[in-house]
Write a structure and sequence with these properties.
The two termini are 44 Å apart. It is globular and about 70 Å long. Helix 9 runs parallel beside helix 12 (182-196), helix 16 packs antiparallel against helix 17 and helix 21 runs parallel beside helix 23 (435-446). By secondary structure, it is mainly alpha-helical. The protein has two domains: 126-226 and 244-358, no CATH class; 359-494, no CATH class. The protein has 26 helices and no strands.
Length: 495
């Protein structure tokens, strides 16, 4: 068995450990960190075997290797650039040029290792951006909660009927996700249902539907999901109205069908949590209605500003989230500066940061690092190529399969692999704003709802509400799968 398969086995074992967290009594964050670091460690120890590189050859020979260029174009491109950079040095210093025309073969192993480190830095940059985004969003939401800001919403929701409340929460999540993004929306809506529902299992059911609704809402908006943003920015889906026109109806069907089925089986009323008395549980009696409204307005405006910031500056979303956090931090400090220490206890960002669930952030880090390692050695690209070959290039079956696969691994590298495999071709399904890309946006966005760790929103809800993987699989996955296939069928008949 080749070394490259050991990483896959480790990933599967880690996945099982995460799924059976409550049975084996090992926190999912520990399992995720183990598989993430082990996968990168194995890759770093035997990079040549993973990358299919003959380390006895020179960089010039490797850069001209047609087989290497086909199997690993990124590595081939790296070697070619390295060769070009070396030639520039030769031209700047022509003395002894004949000896400098090739990088000696004995230096190839070091360059292969440098390529691994470069790949790690690249993925860590992207992952750190997600973690900082998550940290910023969680801090803003926790600060709003500390000021009882969500009472602005919850006080207007009077219904305790489970079915009616589930529809209200899901529809609000669906549209809010399109304006914010699915991750931020999931965090906000979990805070909302905590004020509406006391029973743990009922909260978990609502949390599951928040995941379904957030992912469905993000699929039809260019800023609602990372993958739709990728397709929007990279030129496959530049026309936002075309995306909305073709994907909105399948997306809303993928939410409404599970809601209809849940309405058949769900009965009774929710039990509201006991009202938190002022001055307890971190809620200060010194917060006035005007201060609560200011924090709510500023917090929501700050979250909504993130996609605007990204559009204006073209910087990663986490920079906009940190900017918004900085603004609300300054305002909250000035708002409470004249109060006694006891009165403003729990109302500062410093106090709120102590309540952030760090284990969820570490779980995110581990699982994304593991997926990044599989992507770096080419396993995900190979899976996409296998799908293309096995399914004979059929755009519907390929995209449905990508959506199902995105429930297991992150949808971002899968979409990136599809973007690399299928160039934009005018007059075909792969044209700009073409049918393939529209269906890919739907499938990659909604397919992750089938398993709780299949999307950023799912991972966030799992961490915030401590929902077990197995519980979600038994109670929610079937709803998500039925909705996914129903939405896919609607897209097919609309085409």
């Amino acid at each position: 068995m080749g070394i490259e398969y050991i990483m896959v086995i480790i990933f599967i074992i880690g996945y099982v450990m995460i799924a059976t967290e409550h049975s084996i009594h090992i926190n999912k964050a520990a399992s995720a960190l183990l598989i993430g670091m082990l996968c990168w460690g194995i890759y770093a120890l035997w990079p040549a075997e993973h990358l299919k590189v003959d380390e006895s050859r020179t960089i010039v020979e490797l850069s001209r290797d047609a087989d290497l260029a086909e199997s690993n174009p990124a590595l081939s491109s790296y070697f070619f650039k390295l060769q070009q950079d070396h030639m520039e040095e030769v031209y700047r210093d022509p003395v002894g040029m004949a000896d400098k025309l090739t990088i000696p073969a004995e230096e190839t192993p070091q360059e292969v290792q440098h390529y691994v480190e470069h790949g790690l830095s690249h993925h860590l940059f992207d992952i750190a951006g997600i973690l900082l985004f998550l940290l910023g969003a969680m801090t803003i939401v926790e600060l709003m909660d500390a000021h009882s800001a969500f009472e602005v919403i919850t006080s207007r929701i009077s219904s305790v009927n489970k079915i009616k409340l589930l529809w209200i929460v899901s529809i609000v999540t669906f549209f809010l996700s399109a304006a914010l993004d699915n991750l931020t929306t999931a965090i906000v809506m979990i805070s909302v249902i905590r004020k509406l529902i006391d029973d743990k299992e009922t909260k978990w059911i609502f949390g599951g539907f928040i995941i379904i609704a957030a992912n469905a809402g993000g699929a039809w908006s260019p800023i609602g999901d990372v993958t739709t943003t990728m397709l929007w920015n990279n030129g496959q889906l530049p026309d936002s109205m075309a995306l909305i026109t073709h994907v909105f109806l399948p997306s809303i069907v993928s939410l409404f069908v599970p809601l209809i089925f849940a309405s058949i089986f769900m009965r009774g009323n929710v039990q509201r949590p006991a009202k938190i008395e002022a001055g307890t549980h971190g809620h200060s009696s010194s917060v006035s209605n005007s201060e609560r409204n200011v924090i709510f307005t500023l917090g929501l405006a700050g979250l909504l500003f993130v996609p605007v910031w990204k559009t204006l500056t073209h910087l990663p979303p986490y920079t906009g989230m940190m900017f918004s956090l900085g603004i609300i931090w300054v305002v909250s400090e000035l708002m409470h500066k004249a109060k006694a220490e006891e009165d403003k206890k729990g109302l500062s960002v410093i106090a709120v940061l102590q309540k952030i669930d760090t284990s969820s952030v570490l779980f995110f880090l581990g699982i994304l690092m593991a997926v990044a390692a599989l992507q770096e050695v080419g396993h995900l690209a190979a899976a996409a190529h296998l799908l293309d070959t096995a399914l004979d290039g059929n755009l519907y079956t390929i995209n449905v399969s990508i959506g199902l696969l995105s429930a297991i691994v992150d949808n971002v590298p899968l979409v990136a692999a599809a973007q690399g495999m299928y160039p934009i071709q005018a007059g075909t399904h792969f044209a700009v704003n073409g049918e393939f890309w529209q269906f890919l946006a739907f499938c990659a966005g909604t397919g992750g709802s089938i398993l709780i760790i299949g999307s950023a929103a799912g991972v966030a809800v799992m961490g915030l509400e401590k929902i077990p993987f197995g519980w979600y699989l038994k109670k929610v996955s079937l709803y998500a799968m039925v909705g996914y296939f129903a939405g896919a069928a609607v897209f097919y008949f609309m085409a």
